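F.,

This is the one I mentioned.
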């Protein structure tokens, strides 16, 4: 068998795939050592204004940016009228298992995602080294990083007995596991304090664990303890953890998820701004939808699922049972795709009774429409808020396939929330800096060639709550480490993604 280095094989295949799938892209020779993207408007990820330049890719790196001519025999990709940007980096992605099943990740690369981080919300693969090694062996289309999850280590130490505060001894044991995860390459500690396993942990417990991640240069990323009426207290807790553990804080999918706190984004922004002005490094990410996807039990923060008053209050807080769509319910497949309101009507019971029935029968996944556009806009317009999907392969929410094109098409182009350059910055250099990626997230000589070519006039999401995996439009070509993974509507089948361990 002939031994061919991966990058060369990639380029050779790229020429072949490019010629077959899209004869419009000029291919000048079969003997290719590098490629050059010509005619594009470069948005380099830094936030600076777009400019015209050619970009040369050699191996897995960007070797030149400027005005120069193709070399004889070089592959020429004509991107006239298109935008060339760094590949998008998704700091909160749930493709942990999906990557093993669908390594070419079409719903991800079709959005322009070239790097994603798993292990969010307190849940990470374990042992992390095994997961990363397996992924590296199997190969995937995108670059992958991981956090170490608080709930993951909590369960390993406390077993099923996690519905209480941990003892000092247990916290010490968890700290050892966080250290192990960090040593195996995690980029930081994630928590999901609103979820069952994390809910009873004290702030002090989290601070102790965050200190371990801080010592190793990691960040603290949190699905905060409450995204409803107590959300401000939850943001305060995240800021306190950052201050006391001396660690950068990333608030995951920042949102105001109940009627009682709608319209208070200004207050949340002021709180984060105040922390930042005191030197606490707080940032956030946001997905571009007014509905979240989670487990049905998070509707009742007190977890008093048998208490009709508590349940009624929980349903009212999100604007009523018609805002709650059941996406997956193992015990009642016929409920899937229906709102809690419709299920109750169909059975001749109240929504509260329908809720209790579902929870008694092992619960369900839900999509809940309970945020306002105005709050989403306020958050997105902050310079410290980046774009992340909270989606991933096989998501039951349109954010899984539509997040990045939606922000570019609807919020930047159509609604002028911010410039295209700022939108791209929020998807590239900003998450790269957060994840400690020094050679990704910008179009610069020497950086890794993670690149996306998109049509700025056409880019748009198509995924919906009914069809969450509909592929977005307008992303023409995506390169990961110099190799094309997506060309005009099709995956190439190449799997050039790198497993990235924090060093
Ligand atoms: Zn979350």
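My design for it:
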């Amino acid at each position: 068998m002939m031994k061919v280095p991966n990058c060369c094989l990639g380029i050779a295949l790229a020429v072949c795939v490019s010629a077959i799938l899209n004869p419009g892209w000029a291919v000048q020779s079969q003997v290719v050592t590098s490629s050059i993207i010509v005619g594009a408007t470069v948005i380099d990820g830094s936030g600076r204004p777009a400019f015209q330049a050619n970009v040369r890719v050699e191996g897995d790196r960007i070797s030149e940016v400027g005005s120069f001519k193709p070399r004889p025999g070089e592959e020429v990709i004509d991107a006239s009228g298109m935008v060339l940007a760094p590949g998008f980096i998704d700091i909160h992605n749930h493709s942990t298992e999906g990557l093993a099943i669908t390594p070419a990740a079409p719903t991800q690369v079709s959005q322009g995602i070239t790097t994603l981080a798993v292990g969010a919300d307190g849940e990470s693969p374990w042992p992390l080294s095994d997961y990363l090694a397996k992924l590296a062996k199997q190969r995937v289309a995108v670059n992958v990083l991981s956090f170490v999850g608080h709930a993951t280590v909590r369960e390993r130490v406390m077993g099923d007995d996690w519905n209480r505060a941990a003892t000092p001894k247990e916290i010490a044991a968890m700290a050892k596991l966080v250290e192990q995860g960090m040593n195996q390459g995690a980029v930081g500690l994630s928590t999901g304090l609103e979820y069952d396993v994390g809910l009873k942990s004290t702030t002090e417990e989290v601070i102790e664990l965050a200190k371990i991640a801080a010592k190793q240069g990691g960040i603290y990323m949190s699905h905060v303890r409450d995204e409803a009426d107590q959300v401000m207290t939850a943001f305060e807790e995240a800021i306190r953890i950052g201050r006391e553990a001396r660690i950068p804080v990333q608030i995951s999918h920042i949102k105001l998820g109940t009627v009682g706190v709608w319209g208070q984004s200004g207050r949340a922004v002021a709180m984060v701004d105040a922390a930042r002005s005191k030197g606490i490094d707080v940032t956030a990410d946001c997905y571009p939808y007014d509905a979240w996807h989670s487990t049905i039990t998070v509707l009742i923060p007190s977890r008093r699922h048998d208490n009709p008053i508590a349940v009624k209050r929980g349903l009212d807080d999100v604007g009523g049972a018609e805002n709650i769509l059941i996406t997956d319910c193992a015990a009642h497949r016929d409920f899937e795709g229906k709102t809690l309101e419709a299920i109750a009507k169909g059975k001749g019971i109240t929504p509260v009774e329908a809720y209790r029935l579902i929870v008694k029968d092992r619960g369900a996944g839900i999509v809940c429409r309970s945020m306002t556009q105005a709050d989403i806009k306020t958050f997105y317009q902050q310079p410290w808020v980046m774009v992340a999907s909270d989606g991933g392969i096989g998501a039951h929410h349109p954010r899984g396939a539509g997040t990045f094109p939606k922000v570019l098409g609807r919020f930047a182009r159509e609604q002028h929330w911010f410039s295209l350059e700022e939108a791209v910055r929020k998807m590239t250099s900003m998450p790269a800096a957060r994840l400690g990626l020094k050679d990704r997230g910008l179009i610069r000589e020497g950086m890794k060639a993670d690149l996306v070519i998109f049509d700025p006039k056409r880019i748009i999401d198509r995924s919906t709550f009914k069809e969450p995996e509909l592929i977005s439009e307008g992303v023409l070509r995506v390169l990961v480490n110099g190799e094309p993974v997506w060309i005009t509507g099709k995956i190439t089948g190449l799997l050039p993604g790198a497993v990235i361990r924090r060093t």
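Residues 1-32 have pLDDT under 50 and may be disordered.

Talk soon.
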